Amino acid sequence: METFTHKVPWRRWVAGAAVALLAAVGGFTASAAPSYAQDGRYEAEQPPAACDGTVDTNHSGYSGTGFCNTPNTLGAAVAFTFNAPQAGTATIEIGYANGGSDTRPADVQVNGSTVRSAVGFANTGAWNAWSANTVTVPVNAGANTVRVVATTASGLVNVDYLDVSTGGGPAEGSRRMEDLDRGVVAVRNGSNVLVSWRLLGLDPTGIGFNVYRSTGGGTEVKLNASPLTGGTNYLDRAANLSQSNQYRVAPVVGGVEQQRSPGFTLTANHADEPAVRIPLRNGGPINFTWVGDLDGDGDYDYVVDRQTSPQKIEAYADDGTFLWEVNMGPNSTDQNNIEGGSATIDVGHNDGVTVYDFDGDGRSEVAVRIANGVTFGNGVRFNHANNTEQFIAILDGRTGALRDSAKVPTDYLADGPMYARFAACHLDGEKASLVAFMKNRIGNGGFNLMITAWDFDGTNVDMQWKWLRGNGNHPDGHNSRCIDVDGNGTDEFAEIGFVLNGDGTLKYSLGSQGIIHGDRFHIADMDPSRPGLEGYGVQQDNPSGLREYYYDAATGRMIWKHTLSGTADVGRGMAGDIDPRHPGMEVWSFDGLYNAPTNRLTEPDTSLRPYPQMGLWWDGDITMELFNSGKIEKWDPSNPTPTNSAPRLEQTTGYGGVLGPRSQPTLLADVFGDWREEVVLPNSSYNQLIIFTTDRPSDIRLYTLAHNPGYRNDMTVKGYMQSHHVDYFLGAGMSTPPRPDITY
Ligand code: GCU
Ligand code: CA
């Protein structure tokens, strides 16, 4: 008989804990519910922890009376048990030292299931230098056992303790987002190195950062004198570039330095270029890249298509390690862009693929529209007797294996397979759903349009609702957006000419206001002085002469329209703050640059406007730069120039990047580093992703765009690629964006 007393005091009285205490009064065996407290520190050397090794004391600086040293073998483990007052998440900090030569990865298991794979326990410099890794894990109500298990033959690091903080989530009403790490990146700019990292959506205000550099594998040195509280980037002017340099950052909260981030290494004599190159296998042309944290380590991994026949999808870890391939099979060989095969992906304005953590387990899944003959990442073939019927498939991001599939409704099956555009949306304001926009053609005439929403709970994928356009006057376009247009916390699904509520009912349509099909539209906070979000769209051959329009995104009420004589196919339209002299965003197509809120030309000569392609933030100021035919440009309002003579900051094709259809990149999003955006191009051999990332410092501090609900949804959409937008006003004169209502 043994009773456990734990040095951490009771913090919270809950029914379960009280029962455990009563049991303790009576005494109980080690197998009964023990009476330890739920939150606080659990030493590795002391029950209820279980060390599959020896408790050592030979390296000073540990907490408690020793630390756990396990054999250097794969599977070496230490386990901790604690109580949680309710099901949800717990934040656990694992204290450790690693004086070995490499990062030692370990899985974190909760109650037998791996919830974080291969968490890197980085080198701490010496066995008596202690650090900690913090992860958020799902927990059950009651007792939970966390095991930290070595995934390589190097074994585990020396483990000192587990600090537990339970009851942290998921907060009611908050949307579940990704538990990203700092996303440290470093690129050369001449003899300097720009190091940049993420501010996270829920970081405490006033958080500072220290930046560390280890040159040639040597001891880390802190580069900054006092914690950095401005932009989350640092210009290192003193690096020895003939050696490798690893950079890490450590947050400083309330004057206390926290755990250092995983490192980013700039190799010795690295090319002087604003880019990170991710090696790929050889393969065919790539149209699209998606990012998601496939393995749960806090970094974005990459999924690409291969435009071969049959088509393929490949996944790579963030360092370029090949993970898996899916072969889309014989039904992907018909790549007609209007009536392609039942398993064809990524032609025309279609995709049929996206990447997101749909079940909220901390790892992204890959959603794909499949049909007979698709072979998954684990080699299993999907067999179905009918080649036209299609299925929504959720693949495991780590293996490419099928988790579950569900049949696409057959309403329009008689007209053949349907191509698809996918989006991830938080339709209930908390959990993510997959929304599938699907169309096919009736003979040589009109189109059927069906929009469906799908829930994946970790086991099953199920349809939540189906919306059929029928003969309704609800114009669609070439890409979709998912954003909370009315600010009620739940996302709506928007097309160029209509918006669906999160429950699949029609919210409004612009068809009755004279809007028809067009190629581009945007929804953003274009006018910060007016509540809510605004929309801007362009028109293709509208018989009324309508070229472009601006509307209230919550209601669809028109604010202004530009109508000219004759008709025109206005194939491009852009929105972003590129002229700080006028509050709010500019919008432009081919008829001049307008300040959206005032509906005034900012430059009277309508030929002196940039090309309406895509925007991105790059140079460190608050106005938007542009990505146009591979060039990163900045339109200068004080010296306005036409397309092709805008001041150029970079030419991405000069570094070997190639553009896809419609001069588009494979992805333009905030992939890593600070809030500024990356643009992802393949090289011409298609065996490398070149991720262009800024090399210019900025003193502007904004939380990562990937933690902004509207922007992160946008990152999951393709179609005719357009700029993503945050759901607050980002531009000159902006106020600090509100803390996002998210949990991770
Ligand atoms: C050294 C060190 C141990 C450590 C071991 C390891 O022997 O003294 O504390 O556990 O290396 O590589 O794991
Ligand atoms: Ca970035």
TrEMBL record:
<dbReference type="InterPro" id="IPR049366">
    <property type="entry name" value="RGL11_C"/>
</dbReference>
<dbReference type="Pfam" id="PF03422">
    <property type="entry name" value="CBM_6"/>
</dbReference>
<dbReference type="InterPro" id="IPR005084">
    <property type="entry name" value="CBM6"/>
</dbReference>
<dbReference type="InterPro" id="IPR013783">
    <property type="entry name" value="Ig-like_fold"/>
</dbReference>
<feature type="domain" description="CBM6">
    <location>
        <begin position="40"/>
        <end position="165"/>
    </location>
</feature>
<dbReference type="Pfam" id="PF21348">
    <property type="entry name" value="RGL11_C"/>
</dbReference>
<feature type="signal peptide">
    <location>
        <begin position="1"/>
        <end position="32"/>
    </location>
</feature>
<protein>
    <submittedName>
        <fullName>CBM35 domain-containing protein</fullName>
    </submittedName>
</protein>
<keyword id="KW-0732">Signal</keyword>
<dbReference type="Pfam" id="PF18370">
    <property type="entry name" value="RGI_lyase"/>
</dbReference>
<dbReference type="InterPro" id="IPR008979">
    <property type="entry name" value="Galactose-bd-like_sf"/>
</dbReference>
<dbReference type="InterPro" id="IPR034641">
    <property type="entry name" value="RGL11"/>
</dbReference>
<dbReference type="InterPro" id="IPR041624">
    <property type="entry name" value="RGI_lyase"/>
</dbReference>
